[in-house]
Amino acid sequence: MRLHHLRPPKGAKKRAIRVGRGESGRRGKTAGRGTKGQKARDTTKVGFEGGQTPLKLRLPKRRGFKNPFKKEFAVVNVGRLGEVFEAGETVDVEAIRSKGLVAKKKLPVKILAGGEIGKALVVRVDACSTKARQKIEAAGGSVETGS
Prior knowledge:
This protein has helices spanning 38-41, 55-58, 78-84, 93-98, 130-138; strands at residues 74-77, 90-92, 109-112, 122-125, 127-128, 142-145. It is α/β, with parallel strands linked by helices. Strands 1-3-5 form a three-stranded parallel beta sheet. The two termini are 65 Å apart. The relative contact order is 0.12.
């Protein structure tokens, strides 16, 4: 078999219906569109939504976009943990809030990798970045997330 021998299977190729080719044919004159009206004329604008306010007008103009699914965290850097807590201490969300490291009380706490840490701490928080986890574990500590 060669490339020029290939053919589509029987029944796969169907001839297009030719409309609007004279009054005597079945699909002549109005060509199956009926008479009058918007759909007979084919004159709708791009983006027309049937008379309801179009999407481009419903969206805010220049105010930006607020993602409703975005997760916000109260963040604390690893360096601050090293400054505030003693070696071997357990660092959890309550301890971080009681020391005043996070301002917003309702947000979950996330540890980021800013700064250096030289103490072994047991950290139990809602989230932790990969680099922050590596720094804490390199100092001899451990990290537990999702508490």
